[in-house]
From TrEMBL, chain A:
Highest rank taxon of the organism: Eukaryota
UniProt cross-references to InterPro entries, sorted A to Z: FSCA_dom_sf, MIP18
Name of the protein described by the UniProt record: Uncharacterized protein
Gene3D superfamilies for this protein: 6.10.250.1280, Fe-S cluster assembly (FSCA) (3.30.300.130)
Source organism per UniProt: Maudiozyma saulgeensis
GO biological process, one term: protein maturation
Automatic annotation (TrEMBL), chain B:
PANTHER family in the cross-refs: CYTOSOLIC IRON-SULFUR PROTEIN ASSEMBLY PROTEIN CIAO1-RELATED, WD40 PROTEIN CIAO1
Official protein name in the record: Probable cytosolic iron-sulfur protein assembly protein 1
SUPFAM superfamilies assigned: WD40 repeat-like (SSF50978)
Record's function text: Essential component of the cytosolic iron-sulfur (Fe/S) protein assembly machinery. Required for the maturation of extramitochondrial Fe/S proteins.
Gene Ontology cellular-component terms listed: cytosolic [4Fe-4S] assembly targeting complex; nucleus
Record keyword Translocase present: no
Start-end of each WD repeat: 57-92, 123-164, 169-201, 213-249, 270-302, 339-356
Family: Belongs to the WD repeat CIA1 family.
Lineage: Eukaryota, Fungi, Dikarya, Ascomycota, Saccharomycotina
Pfam family, one: WD40
Record GO biological process: iron-sulfur cluster assembly
Keyword Repeat assigned: yes
Gene: CIA1
Length: 240, 356
């Protein structure tokens, strides 16, 4: 007896996985800020050997350089109504409305999330039973990801991801789906509604698993289950 | 018709799951349940809102999913039930007689922190997450439901200290998401992940399922009865994962089956929501129905003529908690004026004015 549910999965090599086109010719194109371009040139000058970490992570470097401002983090202690300063008598609730429309993002260029970003976020999650990633096992596939996003943080956006379990009775399908959901909920802005489905015809109890993976209450409860969260956290670490 | 924000109150950074409102002689209390395990009590006044109390956050070990004020049997106390993902239900109480007396002498007394709600009882029995708690109209029965597929009915005393389980209802085939009692009769409705609603009544000293409402094509998240004193005029509104809002109507007792009732789906309300609808509230005052859900929209519906079954959308507010989902909507009566309260995944409670 094998210790695995599926001990002979098809495996893709890491460099076979879809990624953004990288081309040295284009390294310096499409750079918004002159300052960032200078910094990039400088970094590449310091270390341009084939083993350079900078060259290997050029995409990450671009992202870091393009970050004009670090995003605002909300402290757990700030901005919350506490008993000590609970007096909110300053305005009448029966009067006219006083809507606060969030305008802090106005003027920033829209930066929609695309399918490759969703792929990069999910394809490197570790399979719960094999020391391989969901991308290598073709559980997550680029053509099975749909994104509807206009990049505006005040508009709703949607991600639909269809996963392909390695075998049709795979009991770990729910766990894999939960791992993907936790990763996306943590990484994506709150405007996203995430739908995770098993690809049609890939699983015997497709509907049951789909229903469970998209029930916010079940997912919230699962995330308070220490044991389950431990397994998910392991999956979310980089595969070794 | 329009809906405008009267007050937004940010209470925590995680999901607000449930709200329940109660008018007392000394304050308008809005209880708030959330993922942070601390139940908060707001005092909603026409000229402002105040955080009255934060209950002991160590009582529940997981998110508090549901809160419900006990309909008063004694005007000197307020009692709250709370159900948690930790499988338990807590009961909290506070003596308000002193406040009532004080208020007559000095109107602006600051009550915050003066006396807190105390833990009165912990009810155990469910195997896992408690999803909803609801009191019967006389305050003597408490219904609780859970992912363990069961609905439990507990009987209590005047003080609300002792709880005896009088029935465990296990007919649902999946999680029971929500329970609600009829506002004037001991009739209970339960909504489930099995896509159905079941109605329960006491019959021959036991609680029995008297009707199963099928039609929704997804989890039924919640339901609410129309306020009515007429025993033959019973209606229920329900909302579901399938994005629909349905109105169900009681027709008659089933002559062929003892105790069974015949219900029909009277109407499906005009479509507003695009995704899961999580909450529905039927106003006892105006007869309007309010719904909220995953798409962040708060919608109001009006029946063109009472009882006709023809409804129109009279107002909707999109993104009423920004880009976050809205888990709960409740009608609140603040000193005679009807307002709405919503709770969202952003950790806020929003109070809304509306104009017809």
């Amino acid at each position: 007896m094998s210790e695995y549910l599926n001990d002979n999965p098809d495996v893709l090599e890491v460099d076979e996985l879809p990624s953004r086109k990288e081309d040295n010719e284009q390294l310096f194109e499409n750079f918004g800020s002159k300052e960032a371009l200078e910094r990039k040139k400088l970094l590449l000058k310091i270390d341009h050997s084939p083993t350079s970490q900078v060259l290997h992570n050029i995409e990450l470097l671009d992202k870091l350089l393009l970050l004009n401002n670090t995003p605002d983090l909300i402290s757990d202690t700030e901005n919350l109504l506490t008993e000590s300063d609970s007096d909110l008598n300053d305005e009448s609730i029966l009067g006219a409305g006083n809507e606060n429309i969030c305008e802090e993002y106005l003027g920033e260029p829209a930066d929609p999330v695309d399918v490759q970003e969703i792929y990069d976020l999910t394809a490197h999650i570790c399979d719960p039973e094999h020391p391989l990633t969901l991308g290598q096992l073709s559980i997550v596939n680029l053509p099975d990801i749909e994104v509807h996003d206009d990049g505006n943080p005040d508009h709703l956006a949607e991600v639909v991801i269809r996963i392909t379990p390695t075998i049709t009775h795979c009991s770990l399908a729910t766990l894999i789906g939960l791992g993907i959901r936790v990763r996306l909920e943590r990484a994506l802005p709150p405007r996203f509604r995430i739908t995770i489905l098993l690809k049609k015809g890939t699983h015997n109890s497709e509907q049951q698993v789909n229903k469970q993976l998209n029930d916010k209450e079940r997912v919230a409860a699962a995330c308070e289950n220490e044991q389950l969260l431990g397994v998910v956290s392991k999956m979310l670490q980089t595969c070794k | 018709m329009s809906i405008t924000l009267a007050k937004g109150i940010k209470l925590q950074n995680d999901k607000t799951w449930s709200l329940d409102y109660k008018r007392t002689p000394y304050a308008n209390l809005l209880a708030v349940a959330s993922t942070d395990r601390k139940i908060k009590i707001l005092n909603i006044k026409p000229n402002g809102t105040k955080l009255e109390d934060v209950l002991d956050g160590t009582v529940h070990r997981k998110a508090v999913r549901s809160v419900a004020w006990r309909p008063n049997t004694d005007i000197n106390t307020v009692t709250l039930a709370a159900g948690s993902f930790d499988a338990t239900v807590s009961i909290w109480t506070k003596d308000i007689a002193s406040h009532v007396a004080e208020d007559e002498e000095e109107e602006d007394t600051d009550m915050a922190g003066e006396s807190e709600m105390d833990l009165l009882a912990i009810i155990e029995g469910h195997e896992n997450e408690v999803k909803c708690v609801a009191w019967s109209q006389d305050g003597m029965l408490l219904a609780t439901c859970s992912r363990d597929k069961s609905v439990w009915i507990w009987e209590t005393d005047e003080m609300g200290e002792e709880y005896e389980c009088v029935s465990v209802l296990q007919e649902h085939s999946q999680d029971v998401k929500h329970v609600v009692w009829h506002p004037t009769m001991n009739l209970l409705a339960s909504s489930s992940y099995d896509d159905t609603i079941r109605l329960w009544k006491e019959y021959d000293d036991d609680w029995e399922c008297v009707a199963v409402l099928t039609g929704h094509e997804g989890t039924v998240w919640s339901s609410d009865f129309e306020a009515s004193d007429n025993k033959l005029d019973i209606r229920l509104a329900s909302v579901s994962d399938d994005s629909a809002v349905r109105i169900w109507k009681y027709i008659e007792e089933d002559d062929e089956n003892d105790g069974q009732q015949v219900w029909i789906c009277q109407s499906i309300l005009p479509k507003v929501h695009h995704n899961q609808v999580y909450s529905v509230a039927w106003s006892p005052k105006s007869g309007l129905i309010a719904t909220s859900g995953s798409d962040g929209t708060l919608a109001l519906y009006k029946e063109t003529e009472k009882g006709s079954g023809t409804w129109e959308v009279v107002a909707q507010k999109e993104l009423c908690h920004g880009v976050y989902e809205v888990n709960i909507v409740k009608w609140i009566d603040v000193d005679g004026q009807e307002l709405l309260a919503t709770g969202g995944d952003d950790g806020s409670v929003n109070i809304w004015n509306f104009k017809i």
